[in-house]
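Sequence of S-locus glycoprotein domain-containing protein (Heracleum sosnowskyi).
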Amino acid sequence: MKNPAIQLLDTGNLVLNDEHQDVNNMKDFIWQSFDHPGDNLLHGMKFGIDLVSGIDRTGPVNGYKFTGLPKTSPGGIFKDTFVINKKEIYYMFDLINETSAVMRFVLTLSGVQKLLLWNYQQQSWMVYINLLVTDCDRYRLCGAYGRSTILISIVSITKNNIL
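Predicted 3D structure, token representation.
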């Protein structure tokens, strides 16, 4: 790369590319922040596992989809995309009409995932969907294979106290 350039796109994606590359072609980015989500997931960001590097950014999965997700997209505002290939497995959502809504998934400090929708009248975020369906939908509460680590700890303590 002769002329590296960093740019903040209208989508909120911070990208590193060659100064002469087309920023509209996502495959040409050398690095992009959308591949490294934090506690917010914006439309167009990937949430999953990179099978090449082994980096895992998923939540509870039941083998078909991430648990806690609604069965249908609310009101046709966005569409869900699940991708499984040799390089990666990920979830992504896209807005059906880019001007229809401003929304984001957020992981709260208590481990609850919520879908927030921007309320233009009140100029604030409102909870559109609370994704806490079961205790294992709370981030990091359940261990490997969906076993509740809290339940296992309680059983272990009880067994140790009885014996």
